[in-house]
Write a structure and sequence with these properties.
The protein has 206 residues and is an alpha/beta fold. The chain contains seven helices and seven strands; from the N terminus they run H-H-E-E-E-H-H-E-H-E-H-E-E-H. Strands 2-1-5-4-3-6-7 form a seven-stranded mixed β-sheet. The longest helix has 20 residues.
């Protein structure tokens, strides 16, 4: 991605994600001048092959709670790795998950978990405390813990397409059994939900 496009992407995220919640804080305005001090994001690796064990990761929420791949062992995990710009790209899928009851039950059932990951690497370290507060606020609003990929390790190891909505489905053994980047079409949504039901043993919807 060019430096120009990357600077525009970082500015949009800060405007809409961080300052949406903290525009009333005078200190935030002083940080705008430092916007373009962000270090370039590392290029992603080649996409991890389907059927292989997912690379380990360490994610951290704005509140400090951590999540590792080992924490998902034994569960079917649907991971969304997104930016502020792409978080609504697959809103239709998220609504389908709610309609089927899969999303609503993920907190009570060890068989299925949904993991929301925000791409936080583009932000300079100077902005980190503000972004952490933003993650806490958004997590509270959405009633979902949002974890940050702070160093971009997960994005690199999983071959994430930066700027897109990236989705990964992991088996209980920790293998990547399905992946997608972009906007999932209606037929793809139906196929994914069917696969989740098959892996969790929930069967077809009644």
């Amino acid at each position: 991605i060019s430096a120009y496009k990357r600077e525009r992407a970082v500015k949009k995220e800060l405007d809409r994600w961080v300052f949406y919640h903290f525009a009333s804080h005078p200190a935030c305005l002083a940080l705008v001048a430092l916007l373009f001090m962000a270090t370039p994001a590392r290029a992603p690796a080649s996409p991890t092959s389907l059927g292989t064990i997912a690379p380990d990761f360490l994610l951290r929420s704005g509140g400090g709670s951590e999540l590792r791949l080992s924490d998902l062992k034994g569960a079917v995990a649907l991971i969304f790795h997104e930016t502020q710009e792409s978080k609504n790209a697959n809103l239709a899928l998220k609504r389908h998950l709610e309609a089927t009851g899969l999303a609503a039950n993920e907190g009570n059932s060890p068989a299925f978990r949904i993991v929301a990951v925000a791409d936080c690497e583009p932000y300079p370290r100077l902005f980190r405390s503000i972004v952490e507060l933003a993650l806490v606020a958004v997590s509270r609003e959405s009633n979902t813990t949002i974890y940050g990929d702070w160093r971009g390790d997960m994005a690199r190891d999983y071959g994430v397409l930066r700027g897109d909505s990236n989705i990964f489905l992991l088996s209980p053994e920790g293998r990547i059994v399905w992946r997608f980047a972009g906007v999932l079409p209606e037929a793809g949504i139906a196929g994914l939900i069917a696969l989740i039901r098959d892996l969790t043993g929930k069967g077809a919807a009644r």
